[in-house]
Amino acid sequence: MISRDEALARAREWAAAGHPGPPPEVDLHEFDLGFIASRREPEPETANGPPRPPSATGQPTAVIDRETGELSQWPSLPAPAIAERYAKHRAAEGRFPPDVREVLEKAGWFPGRDMTAAVDLWLTRFADELAGLEFFPAARAALVEFGGLRLPQFGGHGEPGGGFGSALHPTRGGVLAEGSEVFAEEYGIPVFPLGNNADGPSELVIDARGRVFQLHWADDFFIGPDIDTAIIALIRGGRSPAVSDVTL
To answer: Spans of biased composition, class Basic and acidic residues (predicted)?
Structure first.
């Protein structure tokens, strides 16, 4: 457990890093899980002419955890919004392994992420292509939270970017529904398009139970029993069993 003075000292050290000139002033906002720090921008000079904008905008903020003292960097948002995100971040600890969570966060994911507007727009845009496919609640939940992410895959050296990356809908490209229809007919399992994978390339689909499959030209593969497990598998890579070898 750290004190406010200790949090302020860490915040000042963070604010000064890579910042030329005198150490910048820091604003510190306290909330139940820690402290939110941001650099205080100097007032623009207005003596000659109209007011000038600050020298930088979109300054990052930092959160110093009350229990551990760990400092993490966050987007430039109002303090209440960061406090809410940080609470969700803490609540979701353990949901993904650290290596996978790091990739997810770099890709733009955070607990509570909501892409409803983008998903609904995508559904409208490709309504003709998706006609006849049921948009299961599990599909909506997966796309609302993870939609639009581009996920690299670990390569042979264990670093992201060396394998076959995945892109989850909505993507800039179109959507193919034929594979979903063929899969449903062959296995008796209706599915909905979830995204694409660079291997093949191939399609990712999800069923009403949240199970994720990969429709590859060589075979159909079972990626995971739920979206979280599937994302771990997609990022880490490795062999997935063929659907025909799995009891579903």
So the answer is: 1-13, 26-43
